[in-house]
From TrEMBL:
It comes from Amycolatopsis melonis. Gene3D superfamilies: Glycosyl hydrolase domain, family 43 (2.115.10.20). Keywords: Hydrolase, Signal. PANTHER family: ARABINAN ENDO-1,5-ALPHA-L-ARABINOSIDASE, ARABINAN ENDO-1,5-ALPHA-L-ARABINOSIDASE A-RELATED. This is Glycoside hydrolase family 43 protein. One of its GO terms (molecular function) is hydrolase activity. CDD domains: GH43_Bt3655-like. Residues 1-23 form the signal peptide.
Length: 340
């Protein structure tokens, strides 16, 4: 009976944690924003933290201006940091793109001959973090690994980690042929050992920056349609966000919910992040207007509708670029406030 109660508690906790499933538990006191700031400064491609003003995800405290985490592995620069809470709630993993573009202007090189690894940190409290480690997740035929994210799949009992990669024929080891980014995935239990990667989302044109949230047993996936200048063709929805849905996380066939999200409000967007309000039935979608002021927030009260409305007058922490917003408990919030 004791073992049954313990397992039941674990299941209930998993159902209540972001990055695992649907419900919103009581006790969250705010949000942690993990992000990078861009390639324009020597320290812009490191991990920065900011805290919301209590449970208001549209008002943020002024960040310290110093990196919270610094990569000393791989390219010694990181972009697109993503942080996830374990289903037991006793561990956090932060993963990021191994890429440093400061002082460079060779994006083609980065997708043909970039890093095939991700950078990983671990923590039990969001304050004390392990040393970074570099873990290869993509095969030799890949040219890059961009914007890794993770979601715990209760059906598998493990994390599904996904990212964008260009893939080249095995007969083209120099990666000289034409390719495009598509979303790949692998599974892991510990962010050290990963399964062989598989294609997840390949619409036949470049797509990047997928992120996932679950509600009422349905997974909602948001991605950037990367078509446009340099993206392999053009489309009215190129450089904007697409929302899809599926009942199975790793399904190869998601149903379209909405295209062109953000088009009426911003000039090109990438790096979508999505999260539910700690206090009400409302979801927020932040889209990185990469050629403008950074993240722009959108909101909806109906996740399945694809109807995202821009939020005016939000006060975000400086100019955050592609990152994550994670709900945190009061104790976690207080520790973070004292540290950062």
């Amino acid at each position: 009976m004791r073992a049954f109660r313990t397992m039941a508690m674990v299941v209930l906790l998993a159902l209540a944690l972001p990055g695992t499933a649907d419900a919103r538990p009581p006790g969250y006191a705010g949000y942690l924003f993990a992000y990078f700031t861009g390639e324009g400064t020597p320290d812009g491609e490191q991990v920065y933290f900011a805290l919301s003003q209590g449970n208001d995800p549209l008002r943020w405290q002024e960040p310290s201006g110093r990196p919270a985490l610094r990569s000393t592995v791989g390219t010694q620069g990181v972009r697109d940091p993503f942080v996830i809470r374990s289903p037991r709630g006793d561990r956090f993993y932060l993963i990021a793109t191994d890429l440093r573009m400061y002082g460079r202007d060779d994006w083609e090189q980065s997708w043909r001959h970039g890093s095939r690894s991700i950078v990983v940190w671990e923590s039990a409290d969001l304050v004390r973090w392990s040393a970074p480690r570099l873990v290869q997740v993509a095969p030799e035929t890949a040219g890059n690994v961009w914007a890794p994210e993770a979601f715990f799949d209760p059906a598998r009992g493990e994390y599904v980690v996904f990212w964008a990669s260009t893939i080249y024929p095995a007969t083209d080891p120099d990666h000289t042929t034409t390719s495009y980014n598509r979303i790949m995935y692998a599974t892991t239990k510990d962010f050290r050992t990963f399964s062989a990667p598989k294609p997840w989302f390949d619409p036949g044109h470049s797509v990047i920056d997928s992120t996932v949230i679950r509600h009422d047993g349905t997974y909602y996936r948001f991605s950037q349609d990367d078509r446009g200048p340099g993206g392999g063709g053009s489309t009215p929805c190129g450089r904007y966000i697409t929302e899809e849905k599926s009942r199975v996380l790793t399904s190869g066939s998601y149903d379209l919910v909405k295209e062109c999200i953000g088009k009426d409000a911003i000039v090109g967007g990438e790096g979508p992040l999505v999260f539910r309000s700690n206090t009400e039935k409302r979801w927020y979608l932040f889209i990185d207007e990469y050629g403008g002021a950074g993240y722009r927030p959108f909101e909806t009260t109906d996740l399945a509708s694809g109807d995202w409305r821009p939020v005016p007058n939000a006060q975000l922490p400086g100019k955050p670029r592609h990152g994550t917003v994670l709900p945190v408990t009061r104790a976690e919030y207080q520790r973070l406030a004292a540290k950062y």
